[in-house]
Each structure stands twice: as structure tokens, then as C-alpha cells.
Amino acid sequence: MLAGHVLAWSYALLLLLPLYYLLTTSLKDNAEVFAHPFSLPGQWLFDNFADAWDLASLGPALGNSVLITAGAEAITLALAFPAAYGLARSGGRTAAVVERIFGIGFLIPAFAALVPTVLLAIELEMFQMQAFLILFLPATALPLSVILLTQFMRTIPAELEESAMMDGAGRWTVLWRIYVPMSAPGVITVAILNFLGFWNEYLFSLVILGPDPELRTVQVALPSLVSATMVQYGILAAACLITLVPVYSVYVALQRRMESALVDGAVKS
């Protein structure tokens, strides 16, 4: 038991170390960053946060990231949930083949899809449009979302659905009144994973939207702080911390639900 506590606290400290380094670096200038990398700041430069906000135009970038992430998240869940329900309640070979087809999505690297995606955006006259990214990103998240939700829905007793249908409920009523509430922990887990993927997406955001400050996401805006002649590491660290705030806020808001999903999954397995 004691060894387990020691390992747990050691692992927690190991995770906190880079966060401490990032936080202290965000309050220093370059000279202090290199002279005393792990010490507390001698002079607390809170202006680094204001400079990072202005130099990288983080306001519009955060708004664009929120818009794209929320839109892609909503479309992904709207498509993945009915698809997972159909697969979970179908026991034939066709369902097994369809599920394996979704699994093939894991084998396609992002770089392989980059050129066709750009050509598709140009063909649809949606190049450098956020709407294209909102429609495209769900395609990258659907394989994992469908497979995870399918496995979770298979743990829901089929007798509940049969009883509801004997009482006159239709498919959509069963889906909305039974599967949505009982699958909430699984849906939240998938939503958190998708949120992290959409928020941190860089490659397609850079190529499709470009460096335009009015269109770019926060992940594309951050590298603009890296100057060819001089990098202000304190300002760069401050910008990184600002971009972490939405991710941390979403995680804290859904933390209890995610823990419930993990516990439920462990009990049911």
C-alpha cells in the first residue's frame, strides 16, 4: 500500500513539473529563463500575458477555435450516436463488416489525406473557409467515436428496448429516452477525446485556413510568436498557458462525468 502511494505521488509530481516550469517561465524574461530555469521569477512579468494576447491576436484565434471545435463536436456526436446504436443492436455479418470499415479509419495517416482534402476544399469553393473545417474534422473523429459508443451501448440490456417498444415507443423514442441517458458517461468520454483532438488540430487548420489572423485557430496563432531573429520565451509560455485555459475548463466541468464513465466501464467489464 505504501509503495503504491509513493508511486502515485511520484507520478503526480512528475506531471506537475512541466506545468511548474511553464508557469514560472511565463513570468520571466529571456535572461532569467536561461540563468535560473527552475527558480521562481526574480521579477514577476505579468505583462507577458498581455503581450502574448496582443502579438499573437489570441482573441480572434480563441473565438475561431471555439467555433470550429464546437461545430465539429456537435456534428460528430449527431452522426456517431445513431450509427453506434445501429451497430450495437445489429448482430449480423453486415454490422460486423461495417464496424471493421470504421476501424480502417485508424489506418489512414493525416498526411495521406492532406492533398485530397485540399483539392476537395478547392473543388467545393470552400478553401480558406471555417465551414469546411467544421464539416471535415468529424470525418477524422467518427471511427473512434462510433467504435467506443458501440461497445458502450452493447452493455445496455436489450430487454429495456424491447419493453419500451412493446409499450409503443418508436426507434427514435427509444434512442432519445433510453440510450441517450444511459450512454451519457460514454458520450461525455467521447466528447472530451474529440474536444482535445479538434482543439489541438494543427496541420489541416494551417493548410486549409492559412495564417490569416481573422481565420486562423489558436494552434496556428502560437507559432507566430516565434520570430526569426529573437524568441521571447516568457511571452511564448504565457500564450501557451492562455490556450490551456479552455481545455482545463472543459475537463473540470466534465471531470465527474468522465470518472463515472471510467468506473462504470470497469464495473461492467
Automatic annotation (TrEMBL):
Signal peptide: none annotated. The chain crosses the membrane at residues 66-88, 100-122, 128-153, 174-199, 233-254. Keywords: Cell membrane, Membrane, Transmembrane, Transmembrane helix, Transport. Residues 62-254 form the ABC transmembrane type-1 domain. Pfam families: BPD_transp_1. It comes from the Bacteria. It is found in: Cell membrane. It is a multi-pass membrane protein. One of its GO terms (biological process) is transmembrane transport. Its main location: membrane. GO terms for cellular component: plasma membrane. Belongs to the binding-protein-dependent transport system permease family. This is Carbohydrate ABC transporter permease. It comes from Streptomyces armeniacus.
